[in-house]
Amino acid sequence: MKVKIESYIGVLIFFLFFSSFTFACKPCSEDVSVYIVKQRKPVFDKPYSSRERNGYVTFKADIGHFKVSNVKIIELYPEDIPLSVVEEMILKTQYKLISNRSGHIACDSKSQELSFVFRLPL
Question: Which domains does the chain have, with CATH numbers?
Answer without folding.
Answer: 28-119 (3.30.2420.10)
